[in-house]
């Protein structure tokens, strides 16, 4: 293979990889918006659809829930998000796994009590059967 063909081959691989990464980042961005909307709307169907069956959902206070407890807490209003804002977000894709980090600032109304949360959040997403699912989440309080 001469240099010209080698260059074209490497360039093609780089473009395909870049396109795939960009597409995955766009898909994750949409999944994040869907998760946020589902949490604000307490939409049980969407929460179930967008989370993995083996979800590990860690709270800043140390509590860790599975999928059933996470969905139930949102739908019941025990954990009620009025709005959410993500800042300083980064998305890293590696194969069928995405790692998302951001700061979460939210207005809450847990059990009817108004409040605010300010957290650093780590989300792990996994592509399952062509769909991005939230596999794990861990939060810590912002200083």
Task: Tell me about this structure.
With 143 residues, this protein is α+β, with helices and mostly antiparallel strands. The protein has one domain (3-141): Nuclear Transport Factor 2, Chain: A (Roll). Helix content is 39%, strand content 45%. The protein is elongated, with a radius of gyration of 18 Å. The protein starts with a helix and ends with a strand. The relative contact order is 0.15.
CATH C-level = Alpha Beta
Strand content: over 45%
Distance between the termini: 57 Å
Largest sheet: 6 strands, mixed
Radius of gyration, whole Å: 18 Å
Q: So, CATH architecture?
A: Roll
Coarse structural class? alpha+beta
CATH-assigned fold name:
Nuclear Transport Factor 2, Chain: A
Q: Give the total of domains.
A: 1
Count of DSSP-assigned helices: 3
* Helix content, binned percent: 25-40%
Give the H and E element order.
HHEEHEEEE
- What coarse outline follows from CA principal-axis ratios? elongated
Q: Uncertain regions: pLDDT < 50 for 5+ in a row?
A: none
- Average pLDDT score: 90
Strand adjacency order, main sheet: 2-1-6-5-4-3
Number of strands: 6
What's a concise summary of this model?
It contains three helices and six strands. The protein has 143 residues and is α+β, with helices and mostly antiparallel strands.
Highlighted features:
143 residues, alpha+beta, Nuclear Transport Factor 2, Chain: A, 6-stranded mixed sheet, 3 helices, 6 strands, elongated
Topology (elements, then pairings):
Blueprint: H1 3-41, H2 44-50, E1 51-58, E2 64-65, H3 67-76, E3 81-94, E4 97-110, E5 113-128, E6 131-141
Parallel strand pairs: 1-6
Antiparallel strand pairs: 1-2, 3-4, 4-5, 5-6
